[in-house]
Design brief:
about 10% strand; about 220 residues; alpha+beta; binds glutathione; four-stranded mixed sheet
Length: about 220
């Protein structure tokens, strides 16, 4: 059994969707980000970065894993799916997974901060992160022109990138003229396991979806 500490955000969905796709049993522990639960000592003992998501594998001596990309790889290896075992196949998936972890996630995250939450409106910062987000989405579109999925068969690379890319409108970035990306966003989003994982944790557990409001988002800017 896996314990999952998460919130209703793209980085959280990366793990809940992976768990759903793999069919691994797990228990959800919602973390209220706007209340700062992720900074409490008991949580930082599991995740030194004080952010969601985190898992604890109760079947592996309570082994804790933080960083969403590392969690996805851990789970895929544990279940033996969503990540090829041959060196080149694994490398391809990791390339597109790291592309999300190091590029799409941070850039869209900063676009959200400056477009949605930051108390001052700084046009240069908004433009900078939105332009970089759009550029990264164009990279995905070009990749998906020739391939159904990002790295061979459907994998953790698709889940990771989808969790951010499908929410492009929240960052104020359109995907006009990116038909391959649009096709893939629809196809991945139609998967039952993706829909189940995206419903984790249920909003009711966190109260009022506080993180989605400008006020709730601002509380995270400290
Ligand atoms: N690199 C980390 C990023 C995690 C992250 O930024 N999580 C956000 C939610 S998407 C969070 O916990 N924010 C709360 C905070 O910044 O205190 C990962 O991929 O796990």
């Amino acid at each position: 059994m896996i314990d999952l500490y998460t919130s209703e955000t793209p980085n959280g969905w990366k793990v809940s969707i992976t768990l759903e796709e793999l069919g691994l049993p797990y228990t959800v522990h919602p973390i209220a980000l706007s209340k700062g639960e992720q900074k409490e000592p008991w949580y930082v003992a599991l995740n030194p970065n004080g952010r969601i998501p985190t898992i604890v594998d109760r079947d592996a001596d309570d082994f804790a894993v933080f960083e969403s990309g590392a969690i996805m790889v851990y789970l895929a290896k544990k279940a033996g799916a969503l990540l090829p075992t041959d060196t080149k196949g694994e490398s391809l998936v990791l390339q597109w997974l790291f592309f999300q972890v190091g590029g799409v996630g941070p850039m869209m995250g900063q676009a959200n901060v400056f477009y949605r939450y930051f108390p001052e409106k700084i046009p240069a910062a908004i433009e900078r992160y939105q332009r970089e987000t759009r550029r990264l989405l164009e990279v995905l579109d070009r990749r998906l022109e020739a391939q159904e999925y990002l790295a061979g068969d459907y994998s953790v690379a698709d889940i990771a990138n989808w969790c951010w890319a499908h929410a492009h409108a929240w960052s104020g970035v359109d995907i006009d003229g990116l038909p391959h990306l649009e096709r893939w966003i629809g196809a991945v989003g139609a998967r039952p396991a993706v829909q189940r994982g995206k419903a984790v944790p249920p909003p009711i557990d966190l109260g009022a979806q506080d993180e989605k409001t400008p006020e709730g988002g601002r509380k995270l800017l400290v």
